[in-house]
Protein 1
Amino acid sequence: MIKKIAAFTLAAGLLVPSAVSATEPLQAGKQEPAATAQFTSVAYTTVSIVGKRVKFEVKALENHFNSNFYQRIAWTSNDEEPSVFNDNILSVIVAKKTGQAYQVTSYETLISVKDKIESGQKVYGWALALNGVWYPTMPATLYY
């Protein structure tokens, strides 16, 4: 009789963990999203002096620069998203309805740029996608 009780207890003990483990994959299926990863773009910024103007460019965009993919491109004086509150915007260009280029160019006067950034500092390019997220590009250094 004791052997039967022991065998029953052992069998019941083996069945209970099996039932629990059968529900574990369902719980594991409810995965929490991983920490938000910053999108890394292959796009990059170039900046140069052309006469009395500064030429800003973002090249190698993922898509054609038009309003089907982007809202605008901005260049900033620091690695924070473009914002009038940060006073970091050097130049902005708004996407047009049509466009086939994978790069964008904007010009600003050298005098206005000198007021916001020193020679030897980095210029950061940003692409504002339709989803409202600013995606950074590789920065460039401005020398004047």
Protein 2
Amino acid sequence: MNLPTAFFIPGCSILAEATSPAILMSIAKPIVTFATFVPYAVLVSTKLEKDAAYFNLKPQKWAAIFLAFGTAGVLAALLIPTWFAGFPLMIALYAVPCTWYMKFRNQALKGTKAKPLTFLDIDFGKMAADRKAKNAQAGATLRFQKKDRSEQAAPDRKDPAFEVYAGLEAVLLGALDARATRVEIALSKQGAQIQQVVDSMRFKRDPIAGELATRVVDLLKGFAELDPAERRKFQRGTVPIVRDGTRIVLTVTSVGSMQGESIRVDFEREKQLSIPLAKIGMGEQQLKLLVDTITADPRGTVLVGARPGQGLTTLTYALLGRHDSLTSNIKTLERRFERVVEGVEHTDFDAAKSDFGTQLQSIVRRGPDVVFAADVADAGSSKVLCAAGARSTLFYVGMPSDSVPDILAAWLKSVGDPKAAADALRMVVTQRLVRKLCLTCRAPYTPNPAEQKMLGIAAGKPVQIYKQSGKVLIKDQPVDCPTCKGVGFLGCCAVVEALPLDAESRAVLATGDVKGAYMQARRTFKCPSLQDAALLKVRSGETSFDEVKRIFAPPPAPAGAAPAGAAKPAAAPTPGAVATTPVKPTGQKKQ
């Protein structure tokens, strides 16, 4: 082999020695050496080390052994002058630790369900495919999983489909970063309007323009195993995602309308609907009164009310969950099934078969102990409840309101007979959701006299309550609280009013006097109203006056509806104006 003339410089013995044929190598030999090292490195890093870590077989020790033998193999191939001697030694040095580990591992796991590991179990083709898929996923932050927990393929950054994938990621990541429990996407010809719900409050987000919006929705529906082409019928599916090692289950619901398709994405909906009754937000006395009332005579009707989006489904499932399914026959008739409560027979209302009242009557004829009816919107449903409740069945009935007088009035109207409606009624339970103060950044202050009076605190008595802040002091500089992201609130709980009706209050209700029956029951049982329950949470430091003011603010009147000089509706309790001040992080745990 001849070197170029530039390598022969007169008077340079070192360069002259470099031209000696003793150290010249062919191009193929280094390539073969490297090609042999790569499978060893892949096998060790993706298979053997992970296996040792999974079964806790001293993974750090084996990692050091694999590294030492790998280094020795490379040095043998490079330093031994005769390549045909160094290369076989390198292969032997690679094989020794792999064989040693497999023998050690199989012996250690002998007698367990673990399958023995041999070289025949190693599929280098699959390992290469997994490596390629991993490289493709490198441009993605979220991993979408199938039902068997294997990952859905993500497009490569150079793939035109990656724009759609990135658009879907942006929608979901924005919601996750804001701690949203739900995202709603409304499609139209112009694109998609997006809203998200954080701690029961709705916030608008930047829209997605043009055809990209439809492609993003279709991709999401495909991941959830829904039909992307179907835009009219109701569809629901789930898809797990993984972010930074955390698995989150998305419930994807598609509904069509005249305005276009709407997509709702709930994060961990099963967990949202699985809150026990004791953790809903009731006070101890409220909870005891509710349980004692239902347990003393388990029949009749319990009206359960809340505004849409204020936890009605969670509350009713919590009430059903407190019944012992081993000793009670529990059934439901729901407009749309949400989740399985253990031991409960759930039934979806089928409008194609018959009306709601007829299907409810069919369930009642089977003699259940407890029944949940989603509502009494259909004529005849409430009459079925009154007749059966007088015998031996306890009914929970959903009502779309959180005002006890309004619920009682709606119940009387639904039944049509005030006496029958009153006789069947046992209790009314209603709630609103209130945001909880972030424990890291909430700011203490002394309430003014007006606030003390609303809280039932004697004038002049020293007391401390809290307000939202959203700021903490780090090196004497106010910054957004890292726990609540500067919002000041973290999570939410229910404010509950639970009001039993005794014989006297039912007698008043039978005359059609809703307000009188309500006041009579309040006097008898000394139950806190919904507003009283909210103020108790202010006093305990769970929430703030501003939050109570927000949830009890009257809804805005339609434009031009109120004439000049008309009486205004009763306002919520108005806290004194208190400036927001940064506080130092308390180090307390997140709610």
Protein 3
Amino acid sequence: MPKYTQQNQASNCGAFSIAYLLWELEKAAYQYDHPEDALAFIDAIYNAVKFGDSIYKFDDPVKSIMSSEHCSPVKMVNYLENQGIKTTCLIPVDPPFIAFIRAVNTSTLKPLFNFTYEDPLKALRPNQYTISMAVNTFDITDSDMLLHYVLIKKHAKNATCTVYDPSDGEENTDQSLSVGSPIAGSPWLYTGILIAVAS
């Protein structure tokens, strides 16, 4: 996979994760003569999935920890569905940021996140992809809290996975994740909140 990274824009990781997924599934061309063409493709996704004015439909804590420039999980799911990619949103039985999940769920006609598993990653099939929400802290009241999206592919033969992180463009293989653990040695913590892609 090409190592296109977020550059200096911190809020478009959801768009990068979708682009990585489309390239992995060969739903979009990924060979570009010029890097700026790939970044233009990602920018188009970002414009489609960022909250924009829709942020004002959400209750706190969504509005307190995200802005109109962040990628909306609701719009990300809608974008994938419009590409013909079916998704299932998974959360742990006792999810971190339950107030965040409730705020997202009450913003839609039907709950977006409504499938719970002790360990959502274990519910995935071998070679299945998911976009996961990560955070830098589990303290939702922390004014320095940040959210981040990464693409994950579960491996076929064991519980490990490959993580594709837009912040560095690296493929981090043989990762073992559990809720609260760092992702690929980064400052990002795995939450178990997943947008799983039907395989």
